Amino acid sequence: MQQGNESVVKEFVLLGLSQARGVQLLLFVLFLVFYSLVLPANVLIILTIRRDPRLASPMYFFLANLAFLDICYCSVTPPKMLADFFSRHKTISYKGCMAQLFFLHLLGGSEVFLLIAMAVDRYMAICHPLHYSSVVSRPVCSSMVAGSWFLGFVHSIVQVILIVPIPFCGPNKLDNFFCDITQLVKLACTDTYALELFMFVNSGISTLIGFILLIISYGILLVKVRTGSSQGKSKAASTCITHMIIVVIMFGPAVYIYCHPFLEFPFDKVVAVFHTMVFPLMNPMIYTLRNKEIKQAMRRLLSRRRPIA
């Protein structure tokens, strides 16, 4: 049973959201219906932005990438969780657990940096409108998106590199539906205080600081828009408010989860569900519902595809 990283644990047991069979079936139906509705809607958002020339601005380019990241993020843990509802032995292999950790932090970190890029885009559009089109060009936007993926990769690979050498030789039960790094380190057969402290700073404090800075920046932009005299104030203010909503629902659960790595609270599972499954898919949906241009573009796209009687 010896692993290359000196671990004797081949797999981890996932206790899931509930042990009651009736509750499991109810959750399966709810999540399946949710994904059947929301996933295609996010794909529709991407197709609409890519195919409508009226949505060629950087703001919509970033939104399409946000929707793509959210779809990928929600494809890491939910498929296995849905399958585990029909399995008596909910287990995940050691390598599968490491893969989950890597992709969750890769995509989650990339989304955080993409939200920062979107804030920079709104800053340039509101505070420097005359230079906006020349500064925030398509190559610059593509570089910002690529940079978000790169920084997300760095954040993720650091987490994995630090946790792989840890020996797991005893308990292997995780009271969750996925490999949560804050619970995983507690199963290690060694002192992990320094590692937990690093993760608290790397994931918790950094996320909290990013959240506060983004909220402050959007608040300042909102005040500037409200007190300004330029045309399109209503649209700019609505965009800032939408971005603030997305930042709150993205950062809020992450701050809750990673700012208390040493403790466990009763609502940890509930917050984890919303953080990994519900909220990411809702981000583009919230943006779409508050944006008339995207809704009109969707109608045009769907009307072109509707068969002629």
Using brief descriptors, characterize the structure shown.
309 residues; mainly alpha; three-stranded mixed beta sheet; 11 helices
Count of helical segments?
11
Which superfamily, in CATH terms, is the homologous superfamily? Answer: Rhodopsin 7-helix transmembrane proteins
- Unreliable stretches: 1-6
Structural class: mainly alpha
Q: Provide the CATH topology.
A: Rhopdopsin 7-helix transmembrane proteins
CATH class: Mainly Alpha
Number of strands: 3
Q: Give the name of the CATH architecture.
A: Up-down Bundle
Short summary:
This protein is mainly α and 309 residues long. The chain has 11 helices and 3 strands.
What can you see in these coordinates?
There is one protein chain. This protein is mostly helical and 309 residues long. It has a single domain, classed as Rhodopsin 7-helix transmembrane proteins (Rhopdopsin 7-helix transmembrane proteins, Up-down Bundle). Helix content is 72%, strand content 3%. It has a 3-stranded mixed sheet with strand order 2-1-3. Helix 9 (233-258) runs antiparallel to helix 10. The radius of gyration is 21 Å and the shape is globular. It starts with 10 loop residues before the first strand and ends with a helix.
Question: How is this fold's topology laid out?
Answer:
Elements: E1 11-14, H1 21-51, H2 58-73, H3 78-84, E2 91-93, H4 94-127, H5 129-135, H6 138-163, E3 173-174, H7 181-184, H8 193-227, H9 233-258, H10 268-289, H11 292-305
Parallel strand pairs: 1-3
Antiparallel strand pairs: 1-2
Helix pairs in contact: 1-2, 1-10, 1-11, 2-4, 2-10, 4-5, 4-6, 4-8, 4-9, 8-9, 9-10
